[in-house]
Specification:
With 271 residues, the chain is an alpha/beta fold. Helices cover 44% and strands 11% of the residues. The protein has a six-stranded mixed beta sheet with strand order 3-2-1-4-5-6, with helices on both faces.
């Protein structure tokens, strides 16, 4: 079987701004929700059987306590933020497993789900649907891969090495050194992607760097590595068959009326 793990927060953002482009700035109350549901139904129509969606129920996480400038929900447009919880509820009504994260982030849920699923010998491949570079650390050979829907690329371990210059397991170290503007930490001054890759390939993880390499910046780099390291211990499920899609629940018809998109129910009924 192939397990598909989807970054629901990213998909919601993608649908919201994609639809705004075509609607000339007029936001439908549940337009992004409808878009995400259609995209997941398309995956199921084309053969996906085991699906899990991770969402940021709130944007803030334990990382905000570690670094005050870590990303927050501040600045997210109200029309988009108002669709976070409806997405979770609509997916559940559609019969899709959802993990709404509070203290952890959606990325942690994806990493944890990949860890659990890849431990099952019945699973042939785990596909993590997100372009977020954090998730590159979860890639394992060609069995756990990262799928960038927008870029239409599938990134295995060789793809991670080609893009970042380091092995997947060193991605947290790489991000700690170069920074991640999307997550709100700057990295180490004077170290860019090329230098970071060279240092990591020469010395290994930051903890094994000679003291002179980072000097007084070592503790700062280790803090950023903690921010970049995804948790893989979230107890999301016990058996991958819990992720099997078995059709919509009895409340989905009501949800399609609320969303204002009868095509969703029609697509479900055809499967």
């Amino acid at each position: 079987m192939i397990v598909h793990l989807i970054d629901g927060t990213y998909e919601l953002f993608r649908q919201f701004y994609g639809r705004r482009h075509f609607s000339k700035g007029k936001d439908e109350p549940f337009g992004a929700v409808s878009g995400v549901l259609h995209s997941i139904l398309e995956m199921i129509e084309t053969g996906a059987t085991h699906v899990g969606v991770a969402t940021d129920h709130v944007i803030e996480s334990f990382r905000n306590d570690l670094w005050p400038d870590y990303k927050t929900g501040e600045g997210i447009e109200p029309a988009l933020l108002a669709q976070f919880q409806p997405l979770e509820e609509a997916l559940t009504a559609m019969g899709v497993v959802v993990w709404p994260m509070i203290e952890l982030e959606a990325d942690d849920a994806l990493a944890s789900a990949a860890q659990i699923a890849s431990g099952d010998q019945r699973v042939e491949k785990v596909c993590i649907w997100t372009p977020d570079k954090d998730l590159a650390q979860c890639v394992r050979g060609d069995r756990v891969v990262q799928v960038d829907r927008k870029g239409k690329t599938i990134r295995d371990a060789a793809g991670v090495r080609e893009k970042f210059g380091v092995e997947p397991k060193l991605i947290p170290d790489f991000l700690a050194l170069v920074g991640d503007t999307a997550d709100g930490y700057p990295g180490i001054a004077g170290i860019g992607a090329v230098t970071a890759a060279r240092l990591l390939n020469q010395y290994g993880a930051i903890e094994t760097f000679p003291p002179t390499v980072l000097g007084e910046q070592r503790d700062r780099a280790l803090l950023f590595k903690t921010l970049a390291t995804l948790r893989i211990d979230a107890p999301l499920f016990h058996d991958v068959d819990e992720l099997r899609w078995r059709g919509p629940t009895g409340t989905f018809a009501e949800w399609t009326e609320r969303v204002g998109d009868a095509r969703l129910l029609e697509r479900c009924r055809k499967m």
